[in-house]
UniProtKB/TrEMBL annotation:
UniProt-listed CDD domains: sorbitol_DH (cd05285)
Protein name listed in UniProt: Sorbitol dehydrogenase
Gene source species: Austrofundulus limnaeus
Pfam families found in the cross-reference section: ADH_N, ADH_zinc_N
Domain Enoyl reductase (ER), first and last residues per copy: 14-266
Cofactor: Zn(2+)
Keywords: Cell projection, Cilium, Flagellum, Metal-binding, NAD, Oxidoreductase, Zinc
Length: 294
């Protein structure tokens, strides 16, 4: 095994380095992974450019990366379900305690969860990385490492649609056709949504959304008013959408989502920590509270 472990380490805001770190030794319930594919998330870029996301502040060097797949090269003494050679996708969030959230099956809400590349926890944009074996999922032979790395962002879309109750015949507005908007689109269609309308400022992103199955694309400008956009959505669908999934983190889109969605239905905001003005809504979204009226 190569002894070097080149790692993409963020030392401070704007100070990204390629450091050689020791190859970690897996603990009893961990596996050592040779990393193969690691996505660059908007949050990695945000930490690099700003040194923080909301209350998560970089105070010591941290390895970036949390959308990842790799190959098991060594297993801890208590690991029985994985062996060297297995290809796995990584769930980057590992609960540290068996707290009330863990017991409810919602360990992702655990306040002291370990999460790759969220300060102070190291991520896996490196050559060798040790992770809890229970949070490594074996990939079938027909799923590539690259696809394995995309499972984490895909799960964001699946989670949003399932929390919002997207089901057969749902009509859905998705604000934003970036990565998260597109995975939400894929999930909504797979869960049976009959019509999905997706908005973005960028026509190229909407083209991609069309290729991935969006029924309607809405090109917007920053000058468009929230109520005006909500009306366009209603006119296009013939009725207000049952569900809106907000995937821009932009305040005006959250307003659009609130105006556009049919009464007593669901609006989902993808959590984001970018703008202080959104802190209350982010607090709600971080807590996965439903934003709804009536
Ligand atoms: N819950 C999670 O685990 C999770 C994970 C990743 C990202 N996020 C959040 O999801 C959001 C989207 O992330 P992303 O990685 O897809 O970002 P992205 O930057 O790739 O996509 C955002 C899209 O919104 C579009 N947009 C910007 N302003 C707009 C407007 N006024 N109207 C319509 N579209 C507009 C942009 O053109 C872009 O295509 C962010 O708020 C991010 O913090 C949440
Ligand atoms: Zn991510």
């Amino acid at each position: 095994m190569a002894q070097e472990n080149l790692s993409v380490v963020l030392h401070a805001k704007g100070d990204l380095r390629l450091d050689n770190r020791p190859v970690p030794e897996p603990g009893p319930d961990e596996v050592l992974l040779q990393m193969h594919s690691v996505g660059i998330c908007g949050s990695d870029v945000h930490y690099w450019q700003n040194g923080r996301i909301g209350d998560f502040v970089l105070r010591k060097p941290m390895v970036l990366g949390h959308e990842a797949a790799g190959r098991v090269v060594k297993v801890g003494s208590e690991v029985t379900h994985l062996k060297a050679g297995d290809r796995v996708a990584i769930e980057p969030g590992v609960p540290r305690k068996m707290d009330e959230f863990f017991k409810m099956g919602r360990y992702n809400l655990s306040p002291d969860i370990f999460f790759c590349a969220t300060p102070p926890d190291d991520g896996n944009l490196c050559r060798y990385y040790a992770h809890s074996a229970n949070f490594c999922y074996k990939l079938p032979d027909n799923v590539t490492f690259e696809e394995g790395a995309l499972i984490e962002p895909l799960s964001v879309g699946i989670h949003a649609c399932s929390r919002a109750g997207v089901t057969l015949g749902s009509t859905v507005l998705i604000c934003g056709a970036g990565t998260i908007g597109l995975v939400s689109l894929l999930a909504a269609k797979a869960m049976g949504a009959s019509q999905v309308i997706i908005s973005d400022l960028c026509a190229e992103r909407l083209e991609m959304a069309k290729e991935l199955g969006a029924d309607f694309q809405l090109t917007v400008t920053r000058e468009d008013g929230a109520q005006q956009l909500a009306k366009k959505v209603e006119d296009t669908l013939g009725a207000q959408p049952h569900v809106t999934i907000e995937c821009t983190g932009v305040e005006s889109c959250i307003q659009t989502a609130i105006y556009a969605t049919r009464s007593s239905r669901q609006r989902r905001c993808q959590r984001s920590g970018h703008q202080r003005s959104l802190s209350l809504l982010q607090h709600l979204a971080n807590g996965h509270l439903h934003v709804g009226v009536g």
